[in-house]
Input
Amino acid sequence: MAAILSVKDLKKTYAGGFDALKGVTLDIEEGEIIALLGPNGAGKTTLISTICGIVSPTSGSITVGGHDAQSAYRDARALIGLVPQEINLEPFAKVWDTVRYSRGLFGLPRDDAYLEEVLKKLSLWEKKDSRIMQLSGGMKRRVLIAKALSHSPRILFLDEPTAGVDVELRKDMWEVVAQMKAEGVTIILTTHYIEEAEAIADRVGVITGGELLLVEDKDSLMGRMGQKQLEVQLSQPVDSLPEALAGYDLDLVNGGDALLYKYDARAERTGITALLNDVSAAGLMLADVQTRQSSLEDIFVGLVKGDQP
Amino acid sequence: MNWIAVGAIYNAEMARFFRTLAQSFISPVISTSLYFVVFGAAIGSRIQEVDGVSYGAFIVPGLVMLSVITQAISNASFGIYFPKFIGNFDELLSAPLNFLEIVLGFVGAAATKALFIGVVILATAALFVDLQIAHPLAMLLFLVLTCISFSLMGFIIGIWAGNFEQLQLIPLLVVTPLVFLGGSFYSISMLPPVWQVITLFNPVVYLISGFRWAFFEHADVPVGLSLLAIGGFTMICLVIIWRIFKTGWRIRA
Output
């Protein structure tokens, strides 16, 4: 598929000398959901802001739908909707007016039917005549999404959409995102909730210190980096590993109560059958067996600490 | 030109004005009336005619200018500072807009509000004094140009201001004194000779003089010079704003 957004060697040095972006290159394909993961201050918001025109790049290029974001900024920005991290709505304005205002800024003629559809999709229709200050935090966030969708963007940026949002609302938000994707909207979200990326992203980019460490298909990333662990609980603790099990990558844990076996879940042979056979051959009695897969969070922590992918 | 966007900004700004229409309307009426009570009735009765015009009528152009200038600056500076303050200026930066469209929307609305106030004050003044307007078109031209140019100045102040105190700083420390000392309530010819020269460095003198000429056909400085002054001031403001957007000063990191 063709890239709808292409960022090449993007650098941003702020006036104070801080290098927020140190040469980011990234291609985003139409219709995908990509999650940019990174700790606070990694450069996620700077990256988004630079693409959207809020921050001027120091060097590098950005192309949106084939339009250069600097020289053809009108065409480029027309394709983009941005849901900012901070709730920055005018407290006295009414929901309907603020959403209509956003559409107007993009130079589109009034289309009440479309805006009604957007508000209904976000369960905001009943609130259309409410003032922003009368809404709950979650509702305000939805208004931000409605504003971003008011001009039917093909690319939607969600900057930390669920920061400070309760679990239920977070799930709601994910549903909205899934719906957008179904409609063919390309979605780029930043988050530091790994579970969010794990739940909804197609691809994951890890950004830290202004550099993009990797961008990879979420499943393959988890498969490649994700280790599985098998914990074998013994009915009788042992002091040391029996000789017969010396060939396995085994650790004795819980004071000799359990054996911990690490393996690659995607490998052709995991070695589990042989291990379990050898465990019983060595005369050990099994009390319980459980497996655990490392999450994106484990992978992420490993990456940011400097482990090579 | 993205005219729809200009309209969207303009309408949103005007909506704020209409939300507080009563306040916007009542406060200039009351303050104008107070000026007439104090300057017109109490003091004016002791002052002879100035340049052949009754003192009450003489101060009307100055009063209108005083309010219009103050209102234009405060409306425009607040209008552009408020989105910066709550953080949704980013929405303007990320929309397909150029600087001219943003300026037209905000400055257009601020100038409209100031014009409205100016007309309200004129109407109020007409209740107190017999108001003759010798050159209505010239009067309107001066009024509209003043609304626009000081809204542009307010826009610059709003971009520059980092907090609400700074927003008030220039109007309070620079503009109000210049307007008061610009011949709002007196004719320059009433000043001692040295001050007559010094006062010519005050740009507001040219505005008030030209505006007053449109009413009474009497000016402290030539009318052409007044037009040149306000035209030049508008140009300076436009160039500053153009530079601001070109460099992103205080708006785009």
Summary: Chain B touches chain A through 28 residues (CB under 8 Å).
